[in-house]
Amino acid sequence: MGWVTEHRSALRAVVAEHGSVLVRGLGLGDVAEITAVFRHLAGGLMTGKEAFAPRRTYADGVYSSAKWPPNQPMCMHHELSYTLEFPGLLMFACLTPPAEGGATGVADAAAVLSELPPELAERFRREGWLLTRSYNDEIGASVAESFGTDDRSAVESYCRANAIEFAWQPDGGLLTRQRRSAVVHHPVTGTPCWFNQVAFLSEWTMDPEVREYLIDMYGADGLPFNTRFGNGDPIGQDVVELLNKVYESRTAREPWQAGDLMLVDNVRTAHSREAFEGPREVLVGMTDPVRLADCSPTIEVTAR
């Protein structure tokens, strides 16, 4: 803790310059110590909203990694990039490294944007991207886990205030749609960044057997999440594969060791979680809230 106190400004300066930093040798050994470090580094920890998968809460603003099958990677994405306010800084701390795999990879979002085919990048600039979600009690995050309540009027109020279209289903499930910019400008540097979860939350990133099972059970519109072009057109498998190929070409990774601390600029740098074997416990904190409206989005979003 003493080292972090002494070097807080320097750590933040490194993140501002390079987009992320991994600190090794701190020996962070328990939840209380990690929580104290997160709170010291942060101006205040954020409470997650609109989660796509459940998380364990260790303390106010301190969470587990998203509960995701260990044999399936979490592709590159920017945390909460589909919300109107998202964290500017992510903090990760490793309590238990996995036996194999499980690295949190990082990729420069400006470099990724520059490597996309110009016509594809321009379409996403012009149209943005659309996230569709289907909430039920069996797959993915529940309404209560995502919105912090299962009270219908409260959920509806949140959706209206956050430019989310919604429709309740006869079985009590909820369908939502939200259109967002796929390209934003960094709130400090103004650099254009590929900032979204187009590939990660796509049906084409799912394990093929899982995708087929979910479509058989719930139909194509009943997938827990999916992405489309901003005008509603489907995004083909070829586009998603291209995005993931570009991400991979720009990915840096380092296997976790117990006690590691990683800081990530959430706008400038995408992150992933690779498949792993054995127990893995990485804690997450989010801070420095950024409003989408302050990132020169390429499409206009109007809350109701």
TrEMBL record:
Q: What cofactors does the UniProt entry give for this protein?
A: Fe(2+)
> Iron: is it a keyword of this entry?
yes
Tell whether Oxidoreductase is among the UniProt keywords.
yes
* UniProt GO BP: antibiotic biosynthetic process
Q: Where is the TauD/TfdA-like domain?
A: 6-286
Q: Which PANTHER family match?
A: GAMMA-BUTYROBETAINE HYDROXYLASE-RELATED, TAUD_TFDA-LIKE DOMAIN-CONTAINING PROTEIN
Query: Could you tell me what this protein is called?
Result: Protein AmbD
Q: Which gene encodes it?
A: ambD
